[in-house]
Predict the structure.
Amino acid sequence: MNWKTVILLMGGLLFGGLIGVLIFWGGNPPINTQRERQVPQTGQPFPDFSIESLDGEKLTFSEFIGKPIIINFWATWCDPCKAEMPLFEAIYRQNSGLVVLGVNYNEPVNVIRRFVEEQEITFPILLDVEGKIAQKFQVFGFPTTYFVDRDGILRGVQVGQLDENLLSSYLEKIGAVP
């Protein structure tokens, strides 16, 4: 075996080893990334999160535990989102023991504020300015609504538009029948 062959073999082994190391260590997301993506699971505690409201107040999910909670991911460009807003507003006004949180996905504050004022929405609107909360919970379709009981346990998830009957069945699951 001549020296050129030895150099080529050594180079190949070194390159292959480097690729193997990159695949082994680079292929697994860091633990922090895994913790950041906390997909809510039915029957499990809903992951805590903090977010700013349209009013500029910093809210944390865990401060609402003790009451049934609806968390609705929505956007003004989403027609089904807009169609179900009156349902959420009505149930919020009827049931003072219920928390309704509308999490707007990645829209300018002036657009959100105009929509909220036109629709006369009074429940808290939260600002997912960069879409990080939606990404954390892997919200891929709008609207997506989570129904959490007073103990903080996720009892249901609805991807797509709700109607009155569907909303009523979820409200029963979280103990918030009007």
Observations:
- The chain has two domains: 1-36, 39-173.
- The chain has six helices and seven strands.
